[in-house]
Amino acid sequence: MLGGLSASVLLTLVLAYYQGCAEGAGSVGVAYGRLGNNLPPHGQVVRLLQANGFKSAMIYDTEPAVLEAFIGSGIGLTVQATNEELQSLASDADAAHQWVQVRILPYASTIKYIAIGNEVLTADHEKSPLLYPSMVNIRNALIAFNLDSVIKVSTTHAANVLDATSSFPPSNGQFNASLLQYMEPILGFLSLTEAPFMANVYPFLAYLGANGDIKLPYALLESASAPNQIVVDGGAGLMYTNLFDAQLDTFVSALEKLGYGNLALVVTETGWPSGGGTDATSVVNAQKYVNNVLAHVMGGTGTPRRPALGLQVFIFALFNENEKTGPEYERHFGLFYPDQSRVYDLTL
Ligand SMILES: *[C@@H]1O[C@H](CO)[C@@H](O)[C@H](O)[C@H]1NC(C)=O
């Protein structure tokens, strides 16, 4: 009895410690992509976010007209330096200083994170050598403006920075060896500056690519209704009821193997398309996936490897974007149609 009591007190202390690390129990934001020619004015977008209770959002650039609309909104922003800006940010400290002065400083009160580039190591691989120097130059400029403790610098990664041959079970996760020369300095930077590792995580894409080897309820976080779909990670002694957790912990394992298991993790994108032609894309499936992720995050539990560490997640995306390229489903990730009506109900 006494032993049980002290164990639970200890557990409470450990939970409190980890939740302190995670800056709260869990938080949900939304990615405001603007690759559409029929989207509402920025001011209306801010009101839409407020009306739906979002406290944070991500944009894919530092467009002043957009940043202007968010001032005083109470919504914390993650902004991005675009891949096109990396050449100058990496090679010229003065250009980085100016970029921060013009693009960040006037809106500093609303900005929480600057993501340098988008999926550079995989989607824009030839720019990989520019990534770390850009992060350093931007951070030095933030230091000069005394903003480095309130605005953190990171960069977003796609799931294919992981080694595709060792992504299962999650405890086998490791980064693709050919990317380590770029990844390791970045991880050192994130650790030193107490910034999070940012990952874009799409169970939908893994499900599509698995040709039936992954069951839909497992991908949609619906395994409670299909208990035979629990995955046991024997090496780690952990149980996975959904692919979202499994993908996150594959990243966590990869970080641990390089000695960076203590980095916070932010899911900068996750979502499920409500249409677009494949059988898994439907309003019903999108609604299930997104609401199940929201419930998971708001429930305050983390992943099996980090059960007490609250999740920080951005849902992709705010709107269906008719100018996104790629397969048809790419234009159907939105929570809202461009006329601001809901694609499906959210429980937030
Ligand atoms: C690692 O990345 C390279 C370059 O993108 C790719 O060709 C290779 O297939 C990847 N290897 C694994 C095991 O994922």
Brief descriptors of the model:
single chain, 348 residues, alpha/beta, eight-stranded parallel β-barrel, 38% helix, 15% strand, globular, binds 2-acetamido-2-deoxy-beta-D-glucopyranose, GH, Glyco_hydro_17_plant
Largest sheet: 8 strands, parallel, barrel
In the CATH hierarchy, what is the class? Alpha Beta
Radius of gyration: 20 Å
Based on the coordinates given, report the CATH architecture.
Alpha-Beta Barrel
- Main-sheet strand order equals 1-2-3-4-5-6-9-10
* Hetero ligands: 2-acetamido-2-deoxy-beta-D-glucopyranose
> How many distinct domains?
1
Q: Tell me, what's the shape?
A: globular
Question: Count of helices?
Answer: 12
Mean pLDDT: 92
CATH homologous superfamily assignment: Glycosidases
Provide a descriptive summary of the structure in words.
The protein has 348 residues and is α/β, with parallel strands linked by helices. The chain has one domain (7-331): Glycosidases (TIM Barrel), CATH 3.20.20. The chain is built from 12 helices and 10 strands. The strands form 2 sheets. The chain has an 8-stranded parallel barrel with strand order 1-2-3-4-5-6-9-10, surrounded by 4 helices. α2 (42-51) links the parallel β1 (26-31) and β2. α5 (93-104) crosses α7 and α7 packs parallel to α8 (180-193). It is globular and about 55 Å long. The model is unreliable at 1-24 (pLDDT under 50). The protein binds 2-acetamido-2-deoxy-beta-D-glucopyranose. 2-acetamido-2-deoxy-beta-D-glucopyranose is lined by residues 163-165, 176, 178.
